[in-house]
Each structure stands twice: as C-alpha cells, then as structure tokens.
Amino acid sequence: MANFPSVFEAKEEILEIGRRMYQKGFVAANDGNISCKIAPDVILTTPTGVSKGFMDQDMIVKMTLDGEILSGDSKYKPSSEVKMHIRAYKENPEIMAVTHAHPPVATSFAIAGIGLDQPILTEAIMGLGSIPIAKYATPGTNEVPDSIAPFCRDYNAVLLANHGALTWGSSLMQAFYRLESVEYYATIMMYTGNIIGKANPLSCEQIAPLLETRAKLGIHGGGVPACAVQTTNDKDVIPASGPIGGCQCGGDKSKTIYGGNAEAAQPAPQPASSEIDHLVDQVTREILEKLR
Ligand SMILES: [Zn+2]
C-alpha cells in the first residue's frame, strides 16, 4: 500500500518546489507544472496561468485521474499539460509525483534531438540512467501524453522534443531532484561535449558497480548508457610544474627577461647558465612525465 502524503503536506511541498523551479530558472513566466498523488486515483496539481514561484495553497487544484476537478478555487484550472502527468500515473502505478519544466540546457538538448546518454557522470548513471527524447507533439493535444507513454516504466525522466523535460518519482522531492539532476547532467554534457570538447567516457567495467548501486538504492528504471570498451581515466593527471613560457623569474622582477617597463624593453639578454640548466631540467621533467 502506497504511502500518500496529507493534502497539507503535499501542497506545502508543491509550493516549495515551485519556488525552487522558478529561482533556478527552470521555468519562465507561468511555465511548468507539478503534481502528486494523494490517493490511488486523486492528485493535486498546479494551476495554469500562474507563476510557479508565487503560488499559495488555495491555488492548488485537486482532481481525479479521470480529469474531474474535485475542489480548489474555480478560478484556478489545471494546465492542459496535466494530461501528461495523468498518463504517467496510469502507465506506471509506482509513480507518486511528476514535475515538468523547461530548464534551458536540457531543453536545448531536446531541441537538438540529442538524448542524455553519455557514460560520463557517476551520479547521473546511478540516479537517473539515460534520458530519451519523446518525439515532438503539439502542446495541449493528446499527442503529448501518447509521446511520453512508452518511457514511463523503464526510465526516470524524458525530454520532450522542442519543449522541455518531464520527471517522475516515488515522492515530490524525488521527482524534483531528478529534474535538477537532468539539468545538471545536460550542463555537464554541454561543457564536456561542446565547450571543453573532450570527455573520458566511463568504461563498461566502471559502469557495472554503479548499476549495482542503483539497484541497491531501489531505483529499478533508468536505462543504461553505452559504455567504453577501454578505460581512459585510470591514470593520475598531474599538471605541468613551473610556468613554461612564463618569466622564469621565480617571482623576482629583477630577473625578468624583458623587465617590467615596456618603453625600456630591450632585446632579451641571454639567460644565465643557471637559468638554462633550470629550463633543461624542466623540459626533461615534462618529457619524462609524458612518457610514463
Ligand atoms: Zn511545458
């Protein structure tokens, strides 16, 4: 028997998650929606047309999974996007809460059609798995719930093509933490893939224990990202010692090659033999380091 939160507790958490979503920039204006089950076929959900950062308890809508509104101020209606929440609850009875937002990095991957499936981040593999992208669906139509339905049992989150992200969990907080994790994972993929331009993928050998940990945490869905055959991150990376190409002055300006004054810049004097020895030592050390 599932453990349902009280209406008061659930509303308080929905308000808190709405504030965090808004503060983190996961939603603009009145975007996003949050819901949770309070009985096997009854949910609480956020209203349409209201900023999720500034809600109060009276705005929260109570409704059945058949779409019947049970209470709440009649001026507050659920979003048309609640259809995808309801579909998630129907597809997977273990889902107790759902969050939806438009976090900018994850949404950009959804627009680019690139799923979050790189084997690069231990926490993402343990807590999330891989994140597929549901095909494009016109907002407000039944195509939207149909598009996410295939993923509700085997994954913990899904990106919506050219739209945003949807996450679910066994509690409101778990669903929201997954939303945060999706955006964090997407940000790391952007930094490594598109800004730094390089990442060491985790090998199959390294991913196996992470999947065991995920199972021990009771997370049964999530998908498995592809792994690398070869391990590439099993050596320490020690930054080169000393400022190669720097002043070689050890902080003493009087020993700089060009001096500190641009007007008085003179052709570089030959470095003293001790400086040459120092340079030779340094270059040798660098080469040995690389050969190791
Ligand atoms: Zn949306």
Structure description:
The chain has helices at residues 7-23, 82-91, 104-112, 122-127, 143-148, 172-195, 204-216, 273-291; strands at 33-39, 42-45, 61-64, 69-71, 97-101, 133-134, 157-160, 164-169. 34% of the residues are buried. It is elongated. The protein is α+β, with helices and mostly antiparallel strands and 292 residues long. α3 packs across α6. It folds into two domains: 7-216, 3-Layer(aba) Sandwich (L-fuculose-1-phosphate Aldolase); 235-292, no CATH class. The structure holds zinc ion (ZN). Zinc ion binds at residues 31, 81, 100, 102, 163-164.
Strand-pairing-aware structural class: alpha+beta
The CATH C-level class name of the largest domain: Alpha Beta
Low-confidence stretches: 259-268
Q: Helical stretch count?
A: 8
> Are any ligands bound, and if so which?
zinc ion
The number of strands is 8
Query: How far do the termini sit from each other?
Result: 59 Å
**Overall structural domain count:** 2
Helix amount: 25-40%
Content of β-strand: 5-15%
If classified by CATH, what would the architecture of the largest domain be?
3-Layer(aba) Sandwich
Query: Overall 3D geometry?
Result: elongated
- What characterizes the major β-sheet? 8 strands, mixed
